[in-house]
Design goal:
- This protein is of the alpha+beta class.
- The chain contains four helices and five strands, in the order αβαβαβββα.
- β3 and β4 form a beta hairpin.
- The termini are far apart.
Amino acid sequence: MLKFLTSLFKPEPVKPAPATSDTSMLFAVEEIVPFLTRLANNPRFGLPGGLAASVAAGLPDLAEQQSRRWRIDGGFDTLPAHFEIEVMMERGGEADVTFSAPQPAVEEINRELAAFDAAAER
């Protein structure tokens, strides 16, 4: 009986927000890991440690026009969220990287992409 009563007052666990939006950018392959490191260092994101290293380990195995997807359970603004990163290898040492996440996270990813691109142009 006591367990029943205490379960009535237990808060429901917060479910991770689904990846409902996406954004992408064409990267030189050697820029992917620095960008993911930058994203992981953004205080609004709660991405798992070693994410950039995990992606880096999978890149050499991809041939042109092959892709690989990483599904990540992380957080955004202290709430749980699902993320996906897909890398599609292109010609000339470039890769199209697509980020899927909840809409507010995608908006922040877009700001980070713009800042990263602007810094690379300098």
